[in-house]
Amino acid sequence: MRYESEGWRLGVDVGEGLPLAGPLMQDTAAAFSKELKMTSELTIRQMQAQVDEWVSQWEVGYFPPLLNLARLLEESGELARVLAHREGKTPKAGEAKGELEEELADVLFCLICLANQHGISLDHGFQACMHKLRTRDAQRFPARR
After folding, report:
1. Which pLDDT does position 92 carry in this prediction?
2. What is the DSSP letter of 12?
3. Residue 29, CB half-sphere, CA atoms under 13 Å: how many?
4. Which pLDDT score, from 0 to 100, does residue 38 have?
5. Distance between CA 75 and CA 100 in Å, rounded?
6. pLDDT for the residue 109
7. Is the CB of residue 68 less than 8 Å from the CB of residue 62?
8. Residue 59 contacts by C-beta under 8 Å, 6 or more apart in sequence?
9. Which helix (H) or strand (E) is 107 found in, with range?
10. The pLDDT of residue 52
11. Is 2 helix (H, G, I), strand (E, B) or coil?
12. For the chain, which residues score pLDDT lower than 70?
């Protein structure tokens, strides 16, 4: 099945089922992060395309949407733990402090997966969100002086 939204086309088939998980995925991510060299900033559309390209290489494709939501909530919990540690909560014995950048990226990945599955352009959605905030909340808060 191919998804299209507001003139933006995902461009690859989105499958059903469970994606690759576990140690192999973690090893691949660790190896990639060691070799990662940032050459330029990515647009949201490019991020969505990269996630889709990566997920589409596996026969099983994307997690089902509710499982992706569960993953998003799990990653959000890990993000909350990292923020709590940064803001003064003492980690449990043996618990890693965690990396904020990594946890934010994990949350972003899950959001992108959900958007891709539903053929949603996050670029378009973000622009619509900012328009809503600028109009609806224009007088909500006092301006910075």
Report:
1. 77
2. S
3. 12
4. 63
5. 11
6. 98
7. yes
8. 15, 17
9. helix 100-117
10. 97
11. coil
12. 1-39
Print burial letters for 43-58: b (CB count within 10 Å at least 16), e (below 16).
ebeebbbebbeebbee
Measured CA to CA, the distance from residue 37 to residue 10 in angstroms comes to: 26
Which DSSP string do the residues of 28-96 spell out, in sequence order? HHHHHHHH----SPPPHHHHHHHHHHHHHTSTT-SPPHHHHHHHHHHHHHHHHHHHHHHTTPPPPTT--
Q: Tokens standing for 70?
A: 């569960």
- Whose tokens are 């965690």? That residue is 98
Residue 125 tokens read as 């959605």
Cβ contact 107:75 at 8 Å: yes
Can you tell me which residue has the tokens 């469970």? 18
pLDDT at res. 28: 53
> Which positions ≥6 away from 82 have C-beta within 8 Å?
97, 98, 99, 100, 103
Give CA–CA dist 106/141, Å, rounded: 31
Asked if residue 2 lies in contact with residue 56, where contact means CB atoms within 8 angstroms, the answer is no
